[in-house]
Amino acid sequence: MGKTKKGLFQKSLDGIEFLGNKLPHPATLFAILALLVLVLSAVLSQVGISVEHPGEEGEMVEITNLLNAEGIQYIFSSMTDNFIGFAPLGVVLVTMLGIGVAERTGLISALLRGFVLSVPNRFITLGLVFAGIMSSVASDAGYVVLPPLGALIFAALGRHPLGGLAAAFAGVSAGFSANLLLSGTDVMLGELTIAAASVIDPAYAETMNIAMNWFFIAASVFVLTLIGTWVTEKIVEPRLGSYKGETTEGDNLDGLKPIEKKGLIWSGVALVVGLVLAALLVLPENAPMRGTEGSTMDQIVQSPFMSSLVPIIAILFFIPGLVYGMVTKTIRNDKDVAGQMSDTMASMGMFIVLAFTAGQFVAYFNESNMGLVLGVYGAEFLNSINLTGIPLILMFILITAFINLFIGSASAKWAMMAPIFVPIMMQLGYSPELTQMAYRVADSSTNIISPLMTYFAIIIAFAQKYDKKMGIGTLISTMIPYSIFFLIGWTIMLIVWMLLGIPLGPGGPLEYPN
């Protein structure tokens, strides 16, 4: 038999996969970019390019040569500091110490399973998508727990199991940047955004905090849950049709064990106590971590509390995780706690390697003044072609969504893009907070159709339990409706948010007062 002729869609998927696989590892990519910055700094410094510093009237900025004697001295003397000073490194590791205990004791898994299994049958799709979106608070745990659970639940209800898998996968991945709570994603991206903003306006950057998008991402949870539910029931399930196969022998939908339920209750009590104690640090008038200037809201937003969200988030995960582990006996002594925290840090090894090369790239880019110069020239170019306002935001979202097909890591992409786009957007009057939110909308929406996404192969393995012929093209074609409607719906929401002038988060304005 002759080979089946591939259509344009399948050829496009093959092309994305081929090009993506040709890209080097993100750590290698940053090393290459760092070397490229060094070479460009030497070349451009000879051209005599200069711009007026946007934050310092009358001060001219030129490209600094990093390959002359002083530059080479800087490269070697700053290498360790560039690594240690990489904005997300410390804050991500501190956050993951707390989140890791909650995950490794089984708290996150039990919470997700308990929620989904307690949802009434008629709301199960909505519950799956919602749980998937909320799972991003525990980083990647949702990828492992929810898609297979969603497939099992749909099969038990006589619905196509791949519909349940798709609904959960859409929530976990395409809704990764939406959450009612602050998560490691806010920490990681926020620190990169603050560092990029400091190139233009260090004083403004000091007023920023990692909760800069919280209002918008919290509201997004409900919008994306409704979109994901509608796409599942109106597009994906009808396309899948009725399921003719059999569930794998041994599959079951056992609920939580009594000890797990007890653990959830006590960890919930611990969380409430933790939240009350945290509130007492900032809400009372003379609270120790409350600001002292401005209105009541200003004293809360511009406060030591908001500047300390990283350790607070870590503690609010650590305490319930510790209590759950003690109740369920996954923690018996302090050695178990230390072991779980150690395992979490071990799992962060690749991030640490990435942080080393990314730290060099970001530091060289800033030291050379290329980011500042590019920001000024980029803003002038966009002004000259009248690409501002909503069309500019739409263009940025589309560019990010396309790049995400080839580079899956949100932090790696933003480490490359933030030093360029944040200054440009600030020059045009748009806040770093808005630029970051536009990036998050695009980055999350196309995760589920990128064959290079880290967990894509795992999702295919889950799906092949119910369809042996499931491959990359089939899974992507199943997930494309989610990607399209999430991207459109979320973008419209962001535009409406802009038109209404609602802050994106505490101290998260839409405009930058340049």
UniProtKB/TrEMBL annotation:
Listed transmembrane segments: 27-49, 83-102, 114-135, 211-231, 263-283, 303-324, 345-365, 385-407, 414-432, 444-463, 484-504
Recorded superkingdom: Bacteria
Keywords, in A-Z order: Membrane, Transmembrane, Transmembrane helix
Keyword Transmembrane included in the entry's annotation: yes
Protein name: AbgT family transporter
Organism the protein comes from: Oceanobacillus kapialis
